[in-house]
Structure formats: C-alpha cells, structure tokens
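Q: I'm writing up a methods section and want to include an example of the input and output format. Could you take the sequence below and give the corresponding predicted structure tokens, formatted cleanly so I can copy it straight into the document?
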Amino acid sequence: MFPALTSLSDHDIEVVVDALTEWCSQHHCDIQSCRGQSALAAAVDAVQSSPNRDTLLHQLSEKLTGSN
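A: Here is the clean output for your methods example:
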C-alpha cells in the first residue's frame, strides 16, 4: 500500500500510521492525497531519525508547515 513503510519495523509502521492519521485529520486531508503522501514521506524520515511518538507529530508538523 505505502512502499515507504516497507523499510520500517512493525512498531515504527504503527507509530508512523498513527501520527500520519492524526496529522491528516487535523489538517483535513486524505492520506492518499498529495499532502498525505508528503506527510507520509516526512513521517518516515522523522521516525527513522527519532522513533519517539511524542516528538514525531511535532516533527511532522514542523516539516510540513506552510504546505497547505
């Protein structure tokens, strides 16, 4: 479904999907939209650099600020 997730562990996939779902809900966009795909890529990058769920959503928001 999302090739970017194949390199992650099951735990990291869960963290990414949770953060991505929450971010997309907050920003009223579909996960499969262009914004959702950009958010997915940013979330995968963020979880690979710091797999902390508490900071992932914040990092995701920072990376995507201004991409309305």
